Fold:
Amino acid sequence: MRVRYAETDQMGIVYYSNYLVWMEIGRVEFCRSRGVRYREMEAEDRVLLTVAEANCRYHGPARYDEEVVVRTWLEKAHPRMVVFGYQMLSAEGRMLVSGSTKHVFCGPDLKPARLPEKYWKEFGIGIGERQSGA
Amino acid sequence: MRVRYAETDQMGIVYYSNYLVWMEIGRVEFCRSRGVRYREMEAEDRVLLTVAEANCRYHGPARYDEEVVVRTWLEKAHPRMVVFGYQMLSAEGRMLVSGSTKHVFCGPDLKPARLPEKYWKEFGIGIGERQSGA
Amino acid sequence: MRVRYAETDQMGIVYYSNYLVWMEIGRVEFCRSRGVRYREMEAEDRVLLTVAEANCRYHGPARYDEEVVVRTWLEKAHPRMVVFGYQMLSAEGRMLVSGSTKHVFCGPDLKPARLPEKYWKEFGIGIGERQSGA
Amino acid sequence: MRVRYAETDQMGIVYYSNYLVWMEIGRVEFCRSRGVRYREMEAEDRVLLTVAEANCRYHGPARYDEEVVVRTWLEKAHPRMVVFGYQMLSAEGRMLVSGSTKHVFCGPDLKPARLPEKYWKEFGIGIGERQSGA
Structure:
């Protein structure tokens, strides 16, 4: 991913809210790599992944036109919620931002809902969680 | 309206796409001043105002924390489309951007639709336009 | 503050990174109310307020055209850093988002720097902090 | 390029100002393909490419997660200004947006300046233009 001019501010660095946009790109790609297309999950199964929490630590600035790598992993997953972890690094490996986002699965009315079982495997939700009735 | 830090770029001035966001603010306020709440038009009458064209001329830069005035007027209106004109000025009257946006009224399927007659007066659409069957 | 159309996403609610933009608006207004114009601090004293951490908890969604109130306060302040707390509420008092941001004072080279003493009072930095040599 | 969730609005389509961000991506890539790195032009030669005009025609909406192709070409170039043309298409070739942006070369003071001759070839500025002293 390459930093867009629109994403910089007058300090000459990336404005701090844009990293949350990149986190979204990271988790969409993470889901895609597991075989889940978030667009279809939303359109066909009427499951929305709403954000409950977001946390960022800014280690160093990203600059215009720089290539940025977003690493995304699953920190925790239940049929009702999921936590993603992130690291954003420059192409040379300099740490830019680390953070996490916590999400709650919701129906189209934005009320909490259980993730349909067909998606459990992709989110690493196993038998243990099912029994605990999370 | 005051320029947000997020709206600047590394030139130290407002990034050029943000003026289109301000145009939107201008036309929403214009509608509100005429008694039309766009949110209700969209929610209750299922009329969307999609954008067909946008044109901007950049006369001078706006800077962080500057107060900006958005002047909005109706350039043209038919039951199927409307054109808004805009001028954005600094608080001291320096011209920043002028421009226009052309909109097409659509249904929730994003297909063109006629504006319900109850809104005609607010958009200055009169008997002449009705006869011409625009 | 009124929610802009540009700030919504296809869930029909405000996209989650925009709250960080509103936090910025909150802290700029907070500073202004204390007599500090951030623009001047940056331009004249070459002090930048870089972001080191940002945390958000999303309690309920904000929707298009809704009026939002941003409450901002100082949680902690030293000559080298400052923590702001935030609550964002709907006009009716419904909690939308709470959170905090931690900032480090920097010079124009983005290296940490001490806040000039003339700003200490505004940030509530007193004798105690000065002695502790923070 | 893939449409980001952040770029959609509550109509479920891409918010209209984002296409100007994509145009920027298109022209940066266009310059890169010609061997001009805009970042270096700005940092080393102190030449800024300010926007004087932007025009968009919206043919059809882009949706979340869709792949979008940005075609960029040079419509006109002088040592003082350049016009880029754009077409944005879906991966299947459906036209989304067409448009153009006009730019003026400026110095770091944002005053108009001539493009250094070393960049002329990349922008297709030839002997004819040089003689006409544009």
User: Anything to note?
Assistant: Residues 5-122 of chain A form a domain with the Thiol Ester Dehydrase; Chain A fold (CATH 3.10.129.10). Chain A has one domain: 5-122. The beta strands of chain A are 48-58, 68-77, 81-90, 95-106.
